[in-house]
Structures are given as C-alpha cells and as structure tokens.
Design a protein that fits this description.
The protein is about 60% helix and about 10% strand. The strands form two sheets. Strands 6-7-8-3-9-10 form a six-stranded mixed sheet, with helices on both faces. The chain is elongated and about 120 Å long. It binds adenosine-5'-diphosphate. The site of adenosine-5'-diphosphate (ADP) has 12 residues, from helix 15.
C-alpha cells in the first residue's frame, strides 16, 4: 500500500518536473545513458583485444579493434562531457533553488489570500524548504533519483547483455570436477547467491538513510535558527541591535542547535552507531560480491569455457549489473522514504482555491467611470468569531477623494482587503458597476486599483523598474510620476538617475533611500499604473511634516481624475477629502465632509479630532495656512 502511494507520488513528481523543465530531464536521461553504456563499450573491446592477443594474434584485426575502441571512446567521452556541461548548467544548486522557489512562489501568489495569511501555510512551506535544503528530500530528490534510476537501469541492461554468455558457455568436457559448473542447478545457485548479496547492500543503505530522515525533524528548528542568524548580521538595522546587546552570545547557548548538531545529538549518535554500521556492512557486502564473482569467472575460464580476455569482461559486466540492480533497489527504497516528503510538499501545492475566480471582463473606460458599492457587507476573518466589519453599506462616487478614519483595529485595512478581493465578504455584496466583484476576472479587476500599503516593499532593482514594475518602461512617464509624488529631484540627483539601483542587496552601487523617499517612490509606482482607483494606506506615515505638506498641497495634481481612498488615523491628513468615513469597532459610524462631521459634537469624529488636537497645534502649524480646501 505504502509502495503504491510512493509510486503514485513519485510518478506525479516526475511528470511535474518534466512539464516544468523538459530540457533538464532530457539532458539527465542522455547523460545517464552515456554514463552507463561507455564502460561496457570499453569492457567489450578490451576483452576482444586481450582474446586476440592471447589467441590468433592477427595483426590487422588487432589494430582494427584498438583503433575502433579509441575512436568510439573519444567520441562518446566528448559527447558525455558536453551533455554533462549542459546538464550541470541546468541542475546546479542555484537552478534547483530557482525552480523550487518559482514553484512555491507561483503557488503562493495564486492561492487565496486567507491561506497566505494562515500561519499553518507558512509552517508547512517552511518544513518543505528546510527538508529540501538539509537533505534534498522532496521534489529535488525525485530529480536525482530519476537520473540515478535511469543510469542504473541502463547499467543493469548492459550488464545482462554482456554477461549472458558467462552462464551459457560450458566448461570443457575434460575439465574434471569443474564440469559441475555446467549443471543448471549450479548456475541457478550462483545466480541466486549473487542476487542475494546484491540485494543486501541496498537494504543496508536504506537502513542508514532512514536514520538520517529521523534526524531531519530535529534539525529543522536548528536550521531555522541558522537561517535567522545569518540574516541577522546582513540586515543593517538588526545588526546594530546584535552588536549593541551582544545577542550573538545568547545564540551560542541555544539548546536546539546543540541538540541537533552537537556531538551528543541524535545525528552524531547514529553516525557512530546504527547508520555507520549499516554503511560499513554495505561496503563489506559489495566486497564479498566481488570475491564471489571473481571465483566463478576464473573457475569457468580455468575450465576452458572462454578465453582469458573475457575474464575482465565478465567480472566487469556482472559487477556493473549487480551495481545497477542494487542501485535500482536502493532508489526504490529511498522513494518509499521520500514519499512522506513528497506528500507534504504536494499538500502545500494542492491547497485549494476556495474563492470564486471569476471570468467577466472589466470594461475599460477612458472616463474612469467605475462605481463601487458595498451592500450590507460584514466580514469575519477565518477561524475567528468576531466580525472585523459589520453591515457596511456605501457607494464610491467617481473622482471622489474618500478618507477612511478610525482607531487602530477599527476595520480600515480589512475594508481595503475586501475591496481588493483578498477576502470574500462573509455576508453582503460588493459590486462594481452593479455586478458582484467576484464575477470579474481577478487580474483584470485588480488592474483598476493601485494600492500603496503601509508596509509596501520596493525591490533592489533600478528606480525606473521599481516604478513601472516592469523591465521595459516609459521613461517620460516614470519621470512625470516621480514629479507628481515629489521625488523626482532625489531620483535625478542619483548617479544614474532612474537607472540607479535601490539598496545594496544586489549592487554595491545601490542607493539607500530614506523611509519618506521610499514612500514617495511607492506613490509614484501606484501612479504609473494608471488605475481608476488610488488607495493610499497611511500615505504620509513615514514623511516629515514638510514632505507631508508637499504631498497634500499637490493632492489634486497627484490624483487627477482617479477615485482616491485614503486610510489614516491622522485626521489632519483627511480633512481635505470630499467624504470621510469613520469606522469604529468594524462599523461605519459616521460619513460626511470634515466640517459636517466636526459639527456633530457627540460624534466619533469629533472625539478623535479633539483627542488629536494637541498634535495639530505642533504638527500642522506650518501646514494649516496653505492646505487645499
Ligand atoms: P485597522 O486597519 O483599522 O487598524 P484592521 O482592519 O487591520 O484594522 O483590523 C480590524 C480587526 O480585524 C482587528 O480586530 C484585527 O485584530 C482583526 N484582524 C486583522 N487582520 C486579521 C487577521 N489576518 N486574522 C484575524 N483577525 C484579523
């Protein structure tokens, strides 16, 4: 049953690999064939040459055989070297990581956001990646197994072809007791003996492999620590803390590292005990096999079954045949062990998409006339009972500047997550131009929104590529978006303008930008996208008062004809909006312009405004004179 499961999982993994990387598998198969067959060609020709030397000794024939051997070997070895290069270029550690990263990344980007936010998803992915890096088990192992399995099968088949005659050629009639070797029972006995010894070796290897697998779990936590530690010192901000508080000393005392890798660890105990012994026994068994085969072949040659030249051919062929068979069995055993890891990796890759994907085309409107309506929308996060949003009903009017304010935890970000279809409402409907948003094709729907999240990320690529989110882009448009976001002067002052790489992760010449500059660049990126809706989550949180003033002073220029949604708990930033939505404990408690809301003396807005008033005095003194509105 378990073998059946292992076969099914391995087959699925091979098909998946083959679909993703056909060239990798093609080169691996060709290399396996050449690697297995070349030694047999050498063996066969060498036997022919030796037999000729020990027999008729015809000069022309001898030269002909030597030349053929040399030419065949040279051509095949050259071909093998070429295929090896090709295969290595596709299969080295970096590429393997890249394939793996892409497979996991594609899954993460396409799965429902509720699963991306689910800690269980990350725990599962973490375990998959840890195992792959630590012991290569999982999908990566299937690739190596595929290559080795093919090679072993070719080796086995070649061995059979070259050794069949060993068992068929009879010892001379006058060879005395050696004629017993012609008896079918004796031949069967030798075959069974050789087969038995052959099978013992992979059995012992599998015992040793299983020991390492048992250590895998124990080492996962330690590996996470190692990963965490290496990031610590490479991240500028964290390195400062580590240095200041000498946190490195603290890490030396972490028990799990000692437990996993120390001399008293399970891995070390296995290496000294069961696993080490199994490995040693496996080597001993292979030596016994070599002894047995030499004995049988030499006795048959002694009895005149074949010439002396064939001794090397038969010993080599049967040894290789046995190695091939042992490898096949070893891989089968290993595939059984690997099945557990494949199942785990597939359980990540198979996380189903529960959300309706939609297929309707979003009408492309030059006038940006899109209307969004929330109709009695309530929402509860998965695995929680509390409603993060309760019965929200509202309509966005086109071209409006809308602000969403409220204390932390009042539901502002959740509102945007629902709008961007990261989650589906638990109750109620969200409509775009009268049609439920889940019915639209997801990518098309998302294209009408540009969001600058509070914890946005810029990549360590050139500024222009960051803003366009593309390698090929319109330079004039990048410049104009930077100007609107108030960051063009900074970009122009960089050594290579918009071609300057951000941050130092990937380039020594990379430029470090401040939090405020990064936020402006993120705003420029949102503007480049030409979306109908511009959503800014705390757009000025990282900006100093002067930069904040700059942004608000040019708000109309920045937003143009888009519908803009601002999320903020800094009320001074929102008073210039046409409409302000006040959220409190998941409910939309007030809605209206700044002046209307402020006039409602018992309202939440007034309460928040009064609470923040002390900051306006200090913070907004330089802004209040010239703000729009
Ligand atoms: P705001 O943006 O106004 O600070 P949020 O929309 O982030 O508020 O949060 C609203 C409520 O939902 C809070 O009670 C918060 O704890 C909860 N919440 C937010 N994200 C999640 C999540 N991924 N899972 C469970 N609860 C969440």
């Amino acid at each position: 049953m378990r073998e059946k499961g292992a076969f099914r999982l391995t087959k699925r993994a091979v098909c998946m690999w083959f679909r993703e990387q056909p060239a990798l598998f093609g080169s691996a198969a060709l290399y396996a064939l050449l690697n297995a067959v070349i030694p047999y060609i050498t063996l066969w020709f060498s036997a022919q040459i030796l037999n000729e030397l020990a027999g008729a000794r015809q000069r022309e024939l001898l030269i002909q055989k030597i030349v053929t051997l040399l030419v065949a070997e040279t051509v095949l070895l050259l071909l093998k070297a070429l295929v090896f290069r090709w295969n290595t270029a596709l299969s080295d550690g970096f590429c393997m990581k890249l394939y793996e990263w892409k497979r996991h990344f594609d899954k993460l980007i396409s799965m429902d956001f509720r699963d991306v936010e689910n800690p269980d998803t990350h725990k599962l992915l973490n375990a998959v990646q840890q195992t792959s890096q630590w012991s290569s088990f999982g999908m990566r192992m299937v690739y190596w197994q595929f290559q080795e399995f093919l090679e072993a099968v070719f080796q086995f088949m070649g061995g059979i072809a070259l050794s069949v005659s060993l068992f068929c050629l009879p010892v001379r009639a006058g060879a005395g007791w050696l004629t017993i070797l012609n008896h079918p029972a004796c031949i069967a006995l030798v075959a069974v003996l050789l087969g038995g010894v052959t099978m013992l070796s992979p059995y012992l290897e599998t015992i040793s492999t299983k020991c390492w697998i048992e250590c895998d779990e124990a080492c996962t936590l330690a590996n996470r620590f190692f990963g965490f530690l290496s990031n610590l010192m490479s991240e500028g901000k964290r390195a400062l803390d580590v240095r200041l508080y000498r946190q490195d000393i603290f890490f030396e005392q972490i028990d799990s590292i000692q437990d996993s890798y120390g001399t008293k660890s399970k891995a070390a105990r296995y290496a000294r005990g069961k696993a080490g012994l199994a490995c040693a026994a496996s080597t001993a068994v292979s030596k016994i096999f070599t002894g047995l085969i030499y004995l049988f072949v030499c006795l048959k040659a002694w009895g005149g079954a074949f010439g002396v030249g064939s001794v090397t051919q038969y010993v080599g062929a049967v040894t290789a045949l046995s190695r091939g068979l042992a490898k096949v069995l070893e891989i089968v055993g290993e595939a059984g062990v690997n099945a557990f890891y494949l199942e785990r990796e597939f359980s990540f890759l198979d996380i189903p998409n529960q959300m309706y994907q939609g297929s309707l085309t979003v009408e492309k409107r030059a006038d940006q006339h899109y209307e969004v309506e929330f109709r009695n929308v309530s929402f509860c996060y998965p695995n929680t009972d509390d409603f993060a949003l309760k019965n929200i009903s509202l309509k966005f009017k086109v071209g409006e500047r809308l602000a969403i304010v409220g204390q932390n935890g009042s539901g502002k970000t959740t509102f945007i997550k629902l709008l961007c279809r990261l989650y589906e409402p638990t109750e109620g409907q969200i409509l775009l131009n009268g049609i439920e948003i889940s019915k639209y094709d997801y990518q098309e729907y998302m294209h009408i929104f540009s969001v600058v999240f509070q914890d946005f990320h810029l990549l360590a690529f050139p500024v222009g590529q960051n803003i366009a989110a593309d390698g090929v882009y319109d330079r004039d448009k990048v410049q104009s978006c930077c100007r609107k976001a108030g960051v063009w002067e900074r970009v122009a002052s960089m050594a290579e303008g918009m071609d300057t790489v951000l941050y130092k992760d990937l380039s020594e010449a990379g430029v470090e930008v401040s939090g405020g500059e990064a936020q402006k660049l993120a705003i420029a990126r949102a503007l480049y996208r030409d979306s109908a809706f511009l959503i800014l989550d705390e757009p000025t949180a990282a900006l100093d008062p002067l930069s904040e003033y700059e942004i608000y002073a040019r708000l109309n220029e920045i937003v143009e004809d888009r519908t803009a949604v601002y999320i903020s708990h800094r009320l001074s930033s929102c008073r210039f909006c046409d409409e302000i939505l006040v959220f409190h404990k998941g409910c939309l408690v007030q809605q209206g312009s700044h002046d209307t809301l402020l006039a409602q003396k018992d309202g939440k807005y007034r309460e928040l405004w009064d609470a923040q008033a002390q900051y306006y005095v200090a913070d907004a003194s330089c802004l209040s004179h010239s703000m729009p509105g």
